[in-house]
Structure formats: structure tokens, C-alpha cells
From TrEMBL:
CDD domains: TM_PBP2 (cd06261)
Transmembrane segments: 21-39, 80-104, 111-130, 196-215, 235-256
GO cellular component, one term: plasma membrane
InterPro entries: MetI-like, MetI-like_sf
Cell membrane found in the keyword field: yes
Principal subcellular localization: membrane
Species of the source: Rhizobium loti
Compartments reported by the entry: Cell membrane
Protein name in the entry: Nitrate transport permease nrtB
Keywords linked to the UniProt accession: Cell membrane, Membrane, Transmembrane, Transmembrane helix, Transport
Length: 267
């Protein structure tokens, strides 16, 4: 007797509509908030350790009213944008080089593998010595935390381009540079975009780490101040703000990816 075929798990994604997906996601957040209300309302956790959601919202409202919250968000977003952009451009250039030429792959990739296993935290005191505690140090931490990972992931994206595409360019008499710029990179861009979206989350982590240690502004700095004065409501509030900003940037990247690469979704 022939065994019945099992339905692939990945095909189940098509069974959930967009509205259903959104409903489930919202319910998950509501359950989290309800559990938080319950824990604080029943006195399971003391306010010094876990303040109520109302207390956290009130604190954030006070910080928003005097401009502190907006200033901290602006400083952190600026550092993210500059540091992440520098790292991404350099990583993409490196990935094209090592993804297209075996000589450069042998010369560069082992070193990238070597550095990417070094903990970024260990570089924080060194970057302070090298560049002080200004924005350049924040850019450097973001670069160290994202560039080496991105370069290798971009290289894998480029390597996945079908060889038939490259062969087609050869038959048209295109030069190596034109094959790379007109065929390889555009073909890999949907995957490269996904890599950018994922690595943007790392950049948020690294800038917060840098601000926790050496800064006088930003979301990470404000968490350090809250810890120093046992202002748990402010610390938790800023952690939630970080989560909201990260989720927002991730969803924006998803939306732009669906808009830019409609042909990939159709295929």
C-alpha cells in the first residue's frame, strides 16, 4: 500500500491570511501585557523589581513631555543609521569581491571568519581608548558588530545566484564588472535585503551596548542612569522603547522588501 504523502510544513503558511496573522500577533502581545498586569496587581513582584505597566507608561509620558525621550531616540537612531550604513556598504563591496573571485575569497574570508568570533563586548574598552566616548566610538562598535557577519552572509547570498544567469551574461559578451553589476548583484538583492533586515537588529544591540558603557545621551545611556538610581520604571520603559523601535524598523524593512522585489514574490 502506498503511504499517504505528508503536507510540507512550509505550505501551511499559505493557510493563514494576513488578517489572521495580525490577530494572532496582537493576541500574543495582549497576553504578555495581561500577565504583566496580573503579576504586579497581585503583588507577585515588588515595584522596585517590576513596576506596573501604568507606572512605566506614566514615566515614559513624563520623559516625552520634557523632550528627554525624543532626544535619546534621536541620538540612538542617528548612530544606528550612520554606523549601519557604513558597515553595510563596506560589507557588500567585500562580499562582491570574495563571492566572485576565488583569490580574494582565499585572502579575505578566513580573516573575516577569524574576527567574527571575537566578542564585540571585548572591543568596547579598546574603542574608547582609540576614539574616545563620542559618536565615532559608537559607529566603530556598530561596524565591528555587523561588518564581519554581513560580509560573509552577503557572500553566501551572491554565491546562490544560479550559474546559468552568469553563463547567459558571458554569451552576450559582457565583462566581469557588467556581469556582477547587471546580473549577479540584482539577482541576489532580495536575499541581500533580508540579510540587511536581520543585521539591523544586531546594530540596535551594539549601539545600546556602546551607550550603556560610554555615552552621555541615547537609549542605552538612559538605562544606565536608571540602573544607577534604581529607577526600574524608566529602565523597563526604555527597554520597551528599544523593542518597539526594533520591531518598527523590521516591519518597515519587510514592507519595503515586498515593494522593491515584487518579482521575487511572484516567482
Amino acid at each position: 500500500m502506498q503511504r499517504p504523502q505528508r503536507k510540507p510544513l512550509l505550505s501551511m503558511a499559505a493557510e493563514i491570511s494576513g488578517s489572521t496573522y495580525l490577530f494572532i500577533a496582537v493576541c500574543a502581545f495582549l497576553l504578555f501585557i495581561a500577565a504583566w498586569f496580573l503579576a504586579t496587581g497581585l503583588g507577585v513582584a515588588k515595584p522596585i523589581f517590576l513596576p506596573s505597566p501604568a507606572a512605566v507608561v506614566a514615566k515614559l509620558g513624563k520623559l516625552a513631555a520634557d523632550g528627554t525621550l525624543a532626544s535619546d531616540i534621536g541620538n540612538s537612531v542617528y548612530r544606528i543609521m550612520v554606523g549601519f550604513l557604513i558597515a553595510s556598504v563596506m560589507a557588500l563591496a567585500t562580499a562582491i569581491l570574495i563571492g566572485a573571485y576565488r583569490f580574494w575569497e582565499a585572502a579575505i574570508e578566513p580573516f573575516l571568519d577569524f574576527v567574527r568570533y571575537m566578542p564585540v563586548v571585548a572591543f568596547v574598552p579598546l574603542t574608547i581608548l582609540w576614539s574616545g566616548t563620542g559618536d565615532i566610538q559608537k559607529f566603530l562598535i556598530i561596524w565591528i558588530g555587523t561588518y564581519f557577519q554581513q560580509a560573509l552572509m552577503f557572500k553566501d547570498n551572491i554565491k546562490r545566484v544560479p550559474t546559468d544567469f552568469i553563463g547567459f551574461g558571458r554569451t552576450l559578451g559582457m565583462s566581469d564588472l557588467r556581469v556582477l553589476m547587471r546580473i549577479v548583484v540584482p539577482s541576489a538583492m532580495p536575499q541581500i535585503w533580508d540579510t540587511l533586515r536581520i543585521s539591523l537588529g544586531w546594530a540596535w544591540t551594539w549601539v545600546t551596548l556602546a551607550e550603556l558603557v560610554a555615552a552621555n545621551s541615547g537609549l542605552g545611556y538612559r538605562i544606565t542612569v536608571a540602573q544607577r538610581y534604581l529607577q526600574t520604571d524608566m529602565a523597563i520603559g526604555y527597554i520597551l522603547v528599544l523593542g518597539i523601535l526594533g520591531l518598527a524598523t523590521d516591519q518597515i524593512m519587510r514592507f519595503l522588501g515586498r515593494h522593491f522585489f515584487k518579482y521575487e514574490r511572484k516567482s
